[in-house]
Design a protein that fits this description.
The chain has 176 residues and is mainly β. The chain has one helix spanning 6-20; strands at residues 24-30, 38-46, 52-58, 64-66, 68-70, 79-80, 86-87, 119-121, 127-133, 146-150, 169-174.
């Protein structure tokens, strides 16, 4: 009969608990004509009692605020938009909206879940922070979705500009 000591049993239980905690990572790349294509940094997503934690470590961003969203698809390839114009990271599709709210109301609002807190880049172009998305409670549901950093800030409103006015897709990565 195989016997496991108490310490081995605790390590097995602790290892199982850690395995249940999803940690997703997206290697971000620049996709926009605004920035030279290449690596942009890393974003990691972990669960917490307050919602999903997005730990960002990005470099060479234009200084200032940037819109930040989860998108429906898991691709950063260029694709045509509704007007047929090729769009950097267009294959990521629209903002992730599993409840089909069709509303853009920010990370604390009752619109789509794609809205994440704004990213703030320093004058040196660095953005290192941990941002909380309080309404995203199932981190595993994000697996396979693209995350996008936009050129401009996000107003968390559909007026005066649709989708918060963040503009072009600057950097993209797929959560794995």
């Amino acid at each position: 009969m195989l016997r496991i000591g108490p310490i081995a049993a605790l390590l097995t239980i602790a290892g199982s608990a850690q395995a249940a905690e999803p940690v997703l990572t997206a290697d971000m790349v620049y996709t926009s004509a605004v920035q030279t294509p290449g690596p942009a940094g890393v974003i990691k997503v972990t669960p917490s009692p307050k919602g999903a934690l997005f730990t960002i470590d990005l470099h060479d961003l234009p200084p200032g605020p940037h819109g930040f969203h989860v998108h429906e698809a898991g691709s950063c390839a260029d694709a045509p938009n509704a007007a047929g114009v090729m769009t950097p990271a267009g294959a990521a599709g629209p903002h992730w909206d599993p409840a089909r709210t069709a509303a853009h109301r920010g990370p604390h609002g009752d619109g789509h879940l794609a809205d994440l807190p704004r990213i703030e880049a320093s004058v040196e172009g660095r953005a290192v922070a941990t941002l909380t998305a309080p309404r995203i409670t199932d981190v595993a549901a994000l697996k396979g979705h693209a995350v996008i950093v936009h050129v401009g800030a996000d107003t968390y409103s559909d007026t005066p500009d649709p989708l918060g006015g963040g503009g072009a897709r600057l950097a993209c990565g797929v959560l794995r």
